[in-house]
Every structure is written in structure tokens, then in C-alpha cells.
Amino acid sequence: MIVLAKTKQLYADNGVELSKSTISVGDEVTLFYSGLLAKSGADSVYAHIGYGDNWEHKEFIPMEKVADVFRATIKVNHPDKLNIAFKDSIDNWDNNSYQNYSFNVSTKSSKSSASKTKKTSAKAKSSTAKSEEVKEKAETKTAKTKTASAKSTTKSTAKKSSAAEKTTTSKKSKAAKK
Prior knowledge:
5-stranded antiparallel beta sheet, 2 helices, elongated
């Protein structure tokens, strides 16, 4: 089953189409070719791809023939425009009359992965905030416990001191009566 992009593509009349109308770095797209070489009876076709005006990162990709259409999967690895030309096994070329078949490559990630990144980031922030809140509550509880302990110690010391004073006062008063 051949799955093409839903919108009419720039080179569809030349027999060159991609499985996606908008491509981004990291995408895998299926390239379909039913152009001049396929119509001329080529037994095998290779997609020659490169990026940018200088055709950087060039490679030949063998295409598989299914019915009258050649196809290949391309992993888009670079942000420059994707250039494609085709050659058959006896070095006949289809390069769109020296214009090549060029497709813009977007550097933007897909919405779903950007959305996932935002959600993950929000969850991490929320988790961090909750962790800090729990830590703050624990510190407050510890401080309250220390304060209560200090007050208790102060009261206990004050009671002992008061009891000692009463004993001393009692002894002095008994000595004065004698």
C-alpha cells in the first residue's frame, strides 16, 4: 500500500513524492519515484541525496521496485534543504533538468514531542516544588520541636531553681528562728 502526503506535492507531476508534505530533522520519509527513468523501463533506480546548496553529506540509496513505482526510506539527518536526483543502473539521470528535486527541511520538532517535553518539564518542576514544600514543612516541624523542647527544659530548670530557692529560704528562715 502506497501512502502519500495528503496535499499535492511540488514534483508530483514529475513522479517524485514523499510520504510527508512537511519534513523535519529526524524524520523518516518514504520517497516514491515513478518519473522519467521508471517510465523508460529502468530495472533499478538509486536516489542520490545531499543537503544544502553544495550537496553535503551525499549518498546513494537503492530503491525498491513495487509495481511501476520505486520507493526508498530516507532518514532526514540535516537541517539544510534535501536535494534528490535519480540514476538508473546504466547511469541515466533524472535531475529535473539540472534543477534537482529539493525539499525544505524544518528544524522544528514535531508538536507532539515538544508537548511531551513541556509536560515532562512541568511535572519535574511540580515534583521539585512539592519536594521543597515537604522539606520546608519538615524543617518547620523540627524547629517547632526544638522550640518546645527548649521551653520544656527552661520550665524544668525554672522549677528546679524555684524549688532550690524555696529550700534555701526555708533553711534560712529556720536558722533565723533559732
